[in-house]
Design goal:
Belongs to the glycosyl hydrolase 2 family. Residues 662-760 form the Glycoside hydrolase family domain. Helix content is 10%, strand content 40%. By secondary structure, the chain is mainly beta. It is globular and about 110 Å long. Bound molecules: beta-D-galactopyranose.
Length: 920
C-alpha cells in the first residue's frame, strides 16, 4: 500500500557554491561522464562532514545580515546566492519493486535534483511544486541513498523578498507500480436540478508493470462526520507501461455546501483493486460549491452574490522568512478572515499547499496565480503544474496568468495568454482565467479580449470607460490601494521613514483605502477588490529605500499585528458594528496641543468624549469617516458608535504610564508535540495598571525550556535591522512576536521574557502529546563508494599496495560494492584487490574515525595508507570494523583490501556498503 513519508529532517546544508573540481585526468573525465558518476558536491563521495544540519522548511536568506551596499532594496537587502543540500536515507529491501516519488513543494529558485550521483530533475521556478521519480536510481537495504539539491537563488523571479533554499516540505511517496497516478484525481462536483449534485471524478491509473491488468476503482464520497454518501465501482484495464483514465459520476443530494461562512469539506476515498485486492488508496479533500460570474453584477458563490473583499499577499512572515511552519499559514488566513476578508490573491505566484488547505478549511476564496508569463514548453509545464496541484481545492475560484506584463496590450501577449489559457482549460475548465493588468486594457487585440475577467490593477479612473467599451466582460480590481502606514504611528516622518495611520498616504499610482473601496463598492459590475497588501512583506520598501527593509503597504504588519486600517476594512467588510479610534493618546509634553483623531467605523453616527466630556457627536459618511484635531489631555478618549440612534459599539484609548511589564497572547491554548506544529506568541508592553503601552520600544530577551524551539522573532518595524533568529528583539510601538515550534518532545514549555525595567514574565505553553508524522530513515554516516577492483584474479598473492597507472581504465574496474558480490568471483580461486581513497577533515581525523564493512567474505587484509590494519578470514559474509586511530592520516587516505578466494567461499569479496563513522 501507499506510504507518504516526510523528508524534512536531517539535511546537510552548505551556503555558497561549490565549484566542480577541475580534474583533467582521463580517469576523472571518463568517470564524470557516466550515470551515477557525477563529480563534486553532488557526488556520493563528497565530504559533507562540516556541513550544517538543518530541517525543512529552510530559508537561508533572511538569516544573513542585511547588506546595505550590495543588497537589493526589493529583496529586503538580504543576500541570496547559491546553496547545496545533501540528505542520506535508507530504503527497506521490501521497497524494491515499488514506485518511489519525491515531491518538492517549493524551492527558491532554480533547483537541480541529484540522486546517487545522477541528475534526476530540474525545476526553474521558485514557486511551483514538482515531482521527481527516483524509482530507477535508488538502493535498498544497507546502502544509503544520497539526495543532493543544488539551489541557485542568485536568479530572481520577483521584486519582493523571495527567500532562498528548500523552503517548503519534501515528501517521499512509495506505491505500487500499478496505482493511482501522482495528482491523478480530479474531483469536479457540478450542480444539477434542485439539490442534486453530480460528483464527476476522473482517476488516472498508471501501470508501470510489465503486464496489462484488469483493475477496479472504488470511489466513496465521505462527509465530515464519516458517513459515506455515495459510492461507485468502475472496472477498467491498464495496459502495461500506460495510463488509464477512469471516469465516474457520483450523485449526491443536498450536500453541505462549501461557502465562505460555512466551509464544509468532503473527502473522496479512492481505492484501486486488482483481483479484488486493494493496491492503492488516496484521499482527496474537496467541496461542493458553485461559482458564476456576471458582467453586470459580479461574482456568485452558490448562486448568492458575493462582493470579493480580498487582499494580495506574498508569502513571508516575521521570524521565519518564507519557511513558514504550516500553522502560520492558518494563523495568517484566520487574521484576514477576522478582518472580514473573503478572498486571497496569491501575488504573484503559486502558494504553499498548506495555504490552500487553510483557505479550504477557513472559507477563504483564492485567486491562484502563476509566476512566469511564458507559453514555452517550460512555461506551460509551470502553469499545468499549478492546475493539477490545486484544482481540487474548493477555495480556488480564479486562475491568474500574469501580473502587469508589458506585453499585456499587444498581439504577442494575446498569443501567449491564449496558449497558456488553453493549457489550463484542458485540465480544468471550471474557473475563470484572468491576468492582472496595469495598462493595455483599452487595446483591441491584446490579452484582455481572451480573458474571462478583466483584471484591473489600480487604474480605477478607467473602470467605467472599460465597462462601456466591453459591457459583456466581467471586471475585478485584481490589485487596489497601495496605501502606506506604519503600525501604531500617528505622525508621518520622512526622516525616520514612518507613515501615519490616517489613510492618506499612498503610492502615486494607488489610492487610499476609502477611495478605492468606494470605487469598487459603488459599482455592481465590479466583482470586488484585492487590496495591496494584507500583510507587510520583506523587500519592496516603496517609496523609500534603506533603512526601510520591508514594505509599508500592509493592512497588518509583517507579524500580523493590525495597523489601524485593519479596523477600517472591518468597518467596510463586516456587517456587525465597528467603532475604532485611530490616533495616539500618549503625547507627554504635548498637553493642550491639537492631535489628529479619526474614526474607523460603519456606524451611522458617532460621539467622541475626552475624559467624559462630549466633544463631538456627528453623522458618519462611510467613505469619508470623521477626523478631528483635538487638544491633547491625558486620560480617556472614548468613541461611541450608533446605528439609528442606538449605541452599538464603543472604543476607548487611555493614556498609559511607563511600560513595566509584558502581557502575552498565544495563538492557541497548547502546542502539538508533533515536531512540526507552531504557536504564535504575541507580546505586548503594559503599564502598572495593565494598560497597553503603544509607544514602548524596550529590548526584550527570551529563553525557553521544555519541548519547543524559538523559530524566530519580529516586531513589524519596517526599518528594523535586528536579526530574526536571535534570542532578543526590541518592542516596536508596544508589540513583538515570537514563533515557537515543536521539537517533537512533550514537556510543557516555559518561555521567559525579560527586558530592562520590565517585570520578567514566564509563560507556560502546554504541549499536547502528538505523534510525529512518518519520516524517511536518515543516515548520518559517510559512505565510501569509489572502489576499484582488479579485473582479473591473480593466482599469486599480489602486492596489495601496487600503484594504479592514472590512464589505466582496463585492468581495474569501477565497482559498486553495495550491490552485492561480483559474480566473477564466485567459485574462483586466487586474489583480488579493492582500492579506494577518502579525504578526511581535521575534525574527522581527531574524532576517532573507523571503517565499517557491512559484508566481507574470504581471506581479507585491510591496508590503510599502505599499513596492514586488520585481517579476517571467513567463508561467508561478515562485518568488520577497523579503527583508524593509530594511522598517520594525510590529506588522502588510501584504502586497499586484499581478498584471497577459494571456490567454496560464499559471496567472496566486499559485498555490502562500506562506511566511515566517528567515535569521538
Ligand atoms: C504593483 C505590483 C505589486 C507591487 C505594487 C506596489 O504594481 O503589481 O507587485 O509592486 O505595485 O504598489
Amino acid at each position: 500500500m501507499r506510504e507518504r513519508l516526510s523528508m524534512d529532517k536531517d539535511w546537510l546544508f552548505h551556503h555558497g557554491d561549490i565549484a566542480i573540481p577541475v580534474e583533467n585526468s582521463h580517469k576523472a573525465v571518463y568517470g564524470n561522464a557516466k550515470a551515477g558518476g557525477i563529480m563534486g558536491a553532488a557526488s556520493i563521495e563528497w565530504n559533507d562532514n562540516e556541513w550544517e544540519t538543518v530541517g525543512l522548511p529552510h530559508d537561508w536568506s533572511y538569516r544573513q545580515p542585511f547588506d546595505r551596499e550590495g543588497g537589493v532594496p526589493d529583496f529586503g537587502y538580504k543576500p541570496r546566492g547559491i546553496g547545496w543540500y545533501r540528505k542520506k536515507f535508507k530504503l527497506e529491501p521490501s521497497d524494491n519493486g515499488r514506485q518511489l516519488l519525491l515531491e518538492f513543494d517549493g524551492i527558491a529558485t532554480y533547483a537541480t535534483i541529484y540522486l546517487n550521483g545522477s541528475v534526476l530533475g530540474r525545476n526553474f521556478c521558485g514557486y511551483t511544486s514538482f515531482v521527481v521519480d527516483i524509482t530507477d536510481n535508488v538502493f535498498y537495504g544497507d546502502r544509503p541513498n544520497l539526495l543532493v539539491v543544488k539551489v541557485d537563488a542568485s536568479v530572481s523571479e520577483g521584486w519582493w523578498y523571495e527567500g532562498a533554499g528548500i523552503y517548503r516540505h519534501v515528501w517521499l511517496t512509495k506505491k505500487d507500480p500499478l496505482s493511482i497516478a501522482d495528482r491523478g484525481i480530479w474531483v469536479n462536483p457540478v450542480k444539477q436540478d434542485g439539490e442534486q449534485w453530480l460528483t464527476n471524478v476522473e482517476t488516472r491509473i498508471t501501470n508501470e508493470r510489465e503486464t496489462a491488468a484488469e483493475v477496479e476503482l472504488l470511489s466513496r464520497v465521505v462527509r465530515a462526520d464519516g458517513a459515506v454518501v455515495a459510492e461507485e465501482r468502475t472496472a477498467g484495464r491498464a495496459e502495461a507501461g500506460e495510463a488509464a483514465v477512469l471516469k465516474q459520476e457520483l450523485p449526491v443530494s443536498s450536500p453541505l455546501l462549501w461557502d465562505v461562512d460555512a466551509p464544509h469539506l468532503y473527502k473522496l476515498h479512492s481505492t484501486l483493486l486488482v483481483d479484488g485486492e486493494e493496491r492503492d488508496t488516496v484521499t482527496t479533500s474537496y467541496g461542493y460549491r458553485s461559482i458564476r460570474i456576471c458582467p453586470d453584477t459580479g461574482f456568485y458563490l452558490n448562486e448568492r452574490p458575493l462582493k470579493i473583499k480580498g487582499t494580495c499577499n506574498h508569502q513571508d512572515h516575521a521570524g521565519v522568512g518564507v519557511a513558514l511552519p504550516d500553522a502560520l499559514h492558518e494563523y495568517r488566513i484566520a487574521r484576514l478572515k477576522a478582518m472580514g476578508s473573503n478572498a486571497y490573491r496569491c501575488a504573484h505566484h503559486n502558494p504553499a499547499p498548506e495555504l490552500l488547505e487553510a483557505c479550504d478549511r477557513l472559507g477563504m476564496l483564492v485567486m491562484d496565480e502563476n509566476r512566469n508569463f511564458d507559453s514555452s514548453p517550460e512555461g506551460l509545464r509551470q502553469v499545468e503544474n499549478m492546475v493539477t496541484r490545486d484544482r481540487n481545492h474548493p477555495s480556488v475560484v480564479f486562475y491568474s496568468l500574469f501580473n502587469e506584463e508589458p506585453l499585456q496590450g499587444t498581439p504577442v501577449g494575446r498569443k501567449i495568454f491564449k496558449r497558456m489559457k488553453q493549457a489550463i482549460l484542458r485540465l480544468d475548465d471550471t474557473r475563470p482565467v484572468l491576468g492582472a493588468m496595469n495598462g493595455g486594457v483599452m487595446e483591441d487585440g491584446g490579452t484582455v479580449d481572451v480573458m474571462d475577467i478583466a483584471g484591473f490593477n489600480y487604474m480605477h479612473g478607467g473602470y467605467d470607460r472599460f465597462h462601456e467599451k466591453h459591457p459583456g466582460q466581467p471586471m475585478i480590481g485584481s490589485e487596489t490601494v497601495s496605501a502606506f502606514a506604519t503600525r501604531g504611528t500617528y505622525v508621518s516622518d520622512t526622516a525616520l521613514q514612518f507613515f501615519d495611520s490616517f489613510d492618506r498616504e499612498r503610492a502615486n499610482w494607488g489610492n487610499t483605502a476609502r477611495e478605492s473601496w468606494q470605487a469598487i463598492n459603488t459599482r455592481d459590475y465590479m466583482m470586488g477588490t484585492f487590496v495591496w497588501t494584507g500583510f507587510d512583506y520583506r523587500g519592496e520598501p516603496t517609496p523609500y529605500e534603506w533603512p526601510s527593509v520591508s514594505t509599508h503597504f500592509g493592512i497588518l504588519d509583517t507579524c500580523g499585528f493590525p495597523k489601524d486600517s485593519y479596523y477600517l476594512y472591518q468597518a467596510f467588510w463586516l456587517d456587525e458594528p465597528v467603532a475604532h479610534i485611530t490616533g495616539g493618546w500618549n503625547w507627554p509634553g504635548k498637553e493642550g496641543q491639537p492631535v489628529t483623531v479619526m474614526t474607523h467605523t460603519n456606524c451611522d453616527e458617532v460621539a467622541l468624549y475626552v475624559n467624559g466630556e462630549l466633544r463631538y457627536r456627528q453623522a458618519v459618511e462611510l467613505y469619508e469617516q470623521c477626523q478631528w484635531e483635538i487638544p491633547y489631555e491625558p486620560g480617556t478618549l472614548r468613541l461611541e458608535g450608533y446605528r439609528q440612534g442606538k449605541r452599538v459599539a464603543v472604543d476607548e484609548k487611555i493614556t498609559s504610564g511607563a511600560a513595566c511589564a509584558l502581557r502575552v497572547e498565544t495563538s492557541k491554548a497548547a502546542l502539538l508535540g508533533d515536531g512540526r506544529n507552531a504557536v504564535v506568541v504575541n507580546v505586548y508592553a503594559i503599564d502598572a495598571a495593565g494598560r497597553f503601552v503603544e509607544t514602548a520600544g524596550q529590548r526584550v530577551s527570551f529563553s525557553l525550556t521544555g519541548s519547543g524551539i524559538i523559530l524566530g522573532a519580529g516586531n513589524g518595524n519596517p526599518n528594523s535591522h535586528e536579526a530574526d533568529h536571535l534570542m532578543e528583539r526590541c518592542l516596536f510601538n508596544g508589540c513583538l512576536q515570537l514563533i515557537v515550534g515543536s521539537d517533537a518532545g512533550h514537556n510543557a514549555i516555559e518561555l521567559t521574557l525579560q527586558g530592562e525595567g520590565l517585570q520578567p514574565l514566564v509563560q507556560v505553553i502546554p504541549v499536547e502529546v502528538a505523534d510525529e508524522p512518518p519520516y524517511v530513515l536518515s543516515v548520518h554516516e559517510r559512505y565510501i563508494n569509489n572502489w576499484l577492483l582488479t579485473q582479473e584474479l591473480s593466482p599469486e598473492r599480489p602486492d596489495p599496495n601496487v600503484e594504479i597507472h592514472p590512464t589505466d581504465m582496463n585492468s581495474w574496474e569501477k565497482v559498486d560494492v553495495s550491490f552485492g558480490p561480483q559474480q566473477l568471483l564466485q567459485g574462483a580461486d586466487g586474489y583480488v584487490i579493492y582500492r579506494s581513497s577518502i579525504t578526511l577533515t581535521e575534525r574527522e581525523k581527531n574524532s576517532s574515525p573507523y571503517l565499517y564493512f557491512h559484508a566481507l567474505s574470504g581471506d581479507t587484509e585491510i591496508y590503510v595508507n599502505g599499513r596492514l590494519l586488520a585481517k579476517q578470514s571467513s567463508p561467508w559474509p561478515m562485518t568488520l570494523e577497523v579503527a583508524l586511530d593509530d594511522v598517520e592520516l594525510g590529506d588522502e587516505t588510501v584504502l586497499s583490501v586484499l581478498v584471497g578466494i577459494q571456490p567454496d567461499v560464499y559471496k567472496p569479496g566486499i559485498n555490502g556498503a562500506v562506511s566511515m563513522g566517528l567515535r569521538g
